[in-house]
Amino acid sequence: MHGLSFEPGSPHWNIGTSLDDVTGRIKDFDCCFGQPLVQYGLVINQVPGGPGPLFVIRMHHAVFDGWSYESLLDDIEQLYNGQPVPPRESMNRLLHYNRRLNREAADAFWKMAFDGFQGPIFPAPSPGWARPVSAVAKIREVSVNPVSKAEYTMASVIQLAWAILVSSRTGSNDVVFGITVSGRNAPVPGIDQLMGPAIATLPIRIILDMHSTIEDTLKKIQNWATSTIPFEQTGLTCIGQSSPEAAVACQFQTLLVVQPSRLRRESHLLIPLPQNRDQQRGFLSHILTIVAELQENKIHVEAVFDQTVLHPQEIDHMLDQLEEIIHLILDRPSASLHNFRSYTRGDRDQIRQWNKRTNIKPSLVHDTIQNWLVSQPDALAISAWDGCLTYRELLEHAHHLAGYLQARWSMHKGIVAICMERSKWQIVAMVGVLLAGSAFMVLEPELPKERLREMCWITNAELAIACPVTSERAQFLGVDRIFTFTTELLISCDQGYSWVPPRRDPHTPMYVAFTSGSAGSPKGVTVEHAMCHASAQAYQETFGLSSSSRVLYNPSASSDLLIIQTIWTLVAGGCICIPSEANSLSDLAEIIKDLKPNCVALTPAVARMLSPTELPSLDTVVLVGEGVCPSDIDKWAHELSVRVVYALTECTVASAARELLPSNRHEPNNIGRCLNGRSWVVDPDNYHRLLPIGATGELLLSGPMVSRGYLHMPEESQASFVHCPAWASDFDIPKWERFYKTGDLVRYSLDGTILYLGRRDTQVKLNGHRIDLYEIEKSATSLSVDKVALASLMEFNGLSGLQLVLFLAPITTGSKQPGLFQEMDDETQLLVQNLYTYLYKFLPPYMVPSLVIPLSRLPLTPTGKADRSLLQEEASKLGVELLVSYSRALHTKPAPSTGMERILRQIFADVLSIPEDSIHVDQSFLDIGGDSLSAMRVLASSRKHGLSITMNDLLGQRSIAVLSDQLDAQRSLPSHKTRSADEDCTDTR
């Protein structure tokens, strides 16, 4: 080591007698702006018998990259051996080249590259996420054969594989993620010998044309990579400034790095030490970073991720998928993306396990109800406003009615329409029709006459059963005969007619239900005995519906939901609690107190009107018909047993269900598992394409719960009920099995439960952008957990074009304000302003509503769901002046209000070369395009203003306002030492 110089002006050397001594001195040396970014150490006088002198070098990550690091080690070894080293080019050449870049040409290139970008960011940051705080790594070795085609590289293969994986998980064929390039392709003389960091990070966009082949797509990716070479040194900040779409693209949360192997020639001088992975991960700025190192016949893949956002099991699954997709690309380059099998063998095995068949013996529903006559004849079956009936009494009346109907009508034909008020006699009529050998259809007498008549026409109903209250309305049904149910008539039935057990098969119709809220003609669905019985049994076994259950027959229940509250209760041997229809929805709490049910099924909107502490009889609440909010779980799950039911008329009402625990508040959209069938997630545009676990797609349901289709609507049935998808053979599914296309977007959770993500028809287009209204609603309620959010696309008189509107209503209904729309007082204005700030942080700009309209209450339909139609109708009448008060322009970009905020905004603007007025105080440095390198310039500029800001504070996603408050507070405290070097530097030995 005699050639080393220790003269003044030479680099500072840290000399010690042990490695710990030297590295400790280096760590104590500040590595901040204006200070040396490279530090050297020499370990001498080692313990006798130990290794010889050690040379230690520590460099800031801003002064080297992998290429120059390897070159540096080569030079050190050459010099130590007394051999000449090749001349190394200065960084000045690359910096000079970057300064001469044609900014206009670069802006035009990147603007065109991301023109019309609509894809989501993956992984999506969770609400409140700022930056990675808990980095964990997963490693995978992927065996591959070398790429034989000259038109593309292995890097392109890996990039396409990742794009396919992301596309399947987001449901978008427009994919963006970050990549790191060597930067050594720039036309700079001697750039391959340049000693310094030339790497560049940039967003890559891959649009998957499902009609193209894999090979053609790979060539496009390779051509795109070539076209970026002149502009790859533009920098993320400048790329993001080229267009709003480019700014969104630069917010990518996956960084994919493909690099050659780091294999070095054998050296007796340089001894590699274990890499300090934990310290390197401290510099991560994305949720997920994937490093793919190309080695001989294999790829070493390391995924580093923030486990507060991504679960380790999810990363394992993604790496499995990535490996299989890479193999499929290499094995079938001529295949089209349209026919590309996206699910892996592991997906197939896991989905098959989740969808194991359940064997429930097909039975007639009324046979099961009759069994209670033996085991509990005197137990209450009905507790109603007009009297009570035991199981003995219920079945006696039902048998007599059935005998009367059998004697007077041919009961094996057609459907019997039951148009009665809700009472104990309505239940007798339902059971009596089943015992007579027919199927029933329950009609809501309050529906328009024309709709009731159409429902009877669709079902070919020839007979209707009415009660004295509804007999007049029943005259408009258009049926051949009307039977008015009275107690006097029931007495005559008891005396003169005997019941004959009908010959019925479990696969014959049991009831017909109509899709609630459907526009245009109502769609009738026929449900068989076997389907209803099996679903009732599955629900009973899963959630404990039993003979001790007292279930409220809710006045607001839809026609299909009433099957759960009535027939399923009787199948379980429970008691149906029936209130008078004279009681309005607002009297629901009193109804529950009076009838003392222990189980109620409500929409979340109706449940929000109640307080669990005021209803001591309840032990179970079933939430159904609408999405659940975290506040609903907070309110009910701590007090009672709560279930959420995913209800579809086409699939025997309760298609999936789940118990909600207080710990489930972070996943209120989890609808659980199928109760009596199987679930599948498919490409929304092609049900023949099954998607992998974790992918977003349309939910298909199959199995015993799926109904026959829509009555007398062959075209609608053919569109929604399908057979034999291409992947069915992988799961041993019989060819006759029906699949129902729900139109709901979902994805599998890691445990096989289903996450509901919205409707296909909630996706709208505005100004060429595809917008998911449900995603906006979900984001809004993540911030305002005590609010219900409804998004819509509307036109208003006085405002030009379509407006993206978000209605915000309180969960409770305690407002005394007479109008539907709330005035913009100070509290509401602050709420809306905070909401806009939050939405801008987590949504693309085109998905941020132009109007946020606060409501004093949420209007409901008769079945207890949010009345979107009424809301839009009333909102369309609002005046321009009031609409302007709700507009985005009045509630965004708050200006600096203190001197400190003005200083910080000026520093940020100067460093990033952006206008000051484009920055508002609720944004952070990273929000406006900052990164770790530009952050060093901010720290230097801050010191000139007498401010002491640490790197962690600046990059910690703190807003200007929060950072300003912190700095103002620091001025009143004693000065303290700045962060040590180990927080802002990385070791390289």
From TrEMBL:
InterPro entries, per the entry: ACP-like_sf, AMP-bd_C_sf, AMP-dep_synth/lig_dom, ANL_N_sf, CAT-like_dom_sf, Condensation_dom, PKS_PP-bd, PP-bd_ACP
Residue stretches making up the Carrier domain: 895-971
Keyword Phosphoprotein: yes
Pfam hit, one: PP-binding
SUPFAM superfamilies in the record: Acetyl-CoA synthetase-like (SSF56801), ACP-like (SSF47336), CoA-dependent acyltransferases (SSF52777)
Membrane-spanning segments: none
UniProtKB keywords: Ligase, Phosphopantetheine, Phosphoprotein
GO cellular component, one term: cytoplasm
Keyword Plastid among record annotations: no
GO BP terms in the entry: amino acid activation for nonribosomal peptide biosynthetic process; secondary metabolite biosynthetic process
Listed GO MF terms: ligase activity; phosphopantetheine binding
Name this protein carries in UniProt: Carrier domain-containing protein
